[in-house]
Amino acid sequence: MSLLFEGHSCVVCSRPTALSCGQCNRAWYCSTDHLRQDWPVHGETCGAPTPPSDEEFRVITLHAVRPEFSSVMGIVLMHTDPHVDIVPVQCRADPGAHEALAPKPLLRRWFTDSPPEPMILNLGLGGQVLRAPMQIWYCPLSLQRGAPVNLATEHITAGKAEKAWCGPVVVLKFNGHRCRRYMDATVQDVNLLTAYFLEYAL
Q1: What is the sign, positive or negative, of the torsion defined by CA atoms of 177, 183, 187, 188?
Q2: Cα 171 versus chain centre, distance
Q3: Residues 176 and 96 in one domain
Q4: Which CA distances in Å does 135 have to 47, 78, 172, 193?
Q5: Which of 12, 35, 66 is where one domain is finished?
Q6: 165-185 pLDDT tens trace
Q7: What are the two backbone dihedrals, phi and then psi, of residue 180, each rounded to the nearest 5 degrees?
Q8: What is the number of domains present in the chain?
Q9: pLDDT in tens, 93-142
Q10: Which of 31, 133, 155, 183 is the most buried (most CB within 10 A)?
Q11: Residue 106 sits in which domain range?
Q12: Residue among 107, 179, 169 nearest 143 (CA)
């Protein structure tokens, strides 16, 4: 099976895998052989019959856990367009992932040169702690090169920023300070971003 998910690896060989024990969905394996091999350990916590017969092993099979998809409104500032867009951003949450992890936004359509990296904006105007922090996804390669200049950030700062931002930017808004879930970003959030881009020094 070709489905591979970040964060899961085979208990036996550590290979990335999307297959988990079909009985408990708590242990991950790349093959039924490795599930059998680990059964003396895993069987004690799995809750399935111990030791299982060949027929029971057919029931306690591996199954692929499919990701859950959702969408949230995010703020997009592109280097190719001076306008700020608020658009749906699709996110993927992998079943079995740790509760503290936010869903993973799918951003490839905006970041075509290199993978983006995130940073979290916790402080708002006047240094006030934000109840809903902003997650800013950016292209480190563009910032390193100093090109191309982001036309949207240039527009919202009226060209008065201390330092020009380069490359695309996608901003998502967390639903609370624990940063576990996203909520829809709005036009009002652009004011906060404008203040940040006016003063940023990354």
Answers
A1: negative
A2: 12
A3: yes
A4: 40, 16, 5, 11
A5: 66
A6: 899 999 999 998 888 889 999
A7: -105, -25
A8: 2
A9: 865 555 556 788 999 999 998 899 999 998 877 778 888 999 999 999 99
A10: 133
A11: 68-199
A12: 169
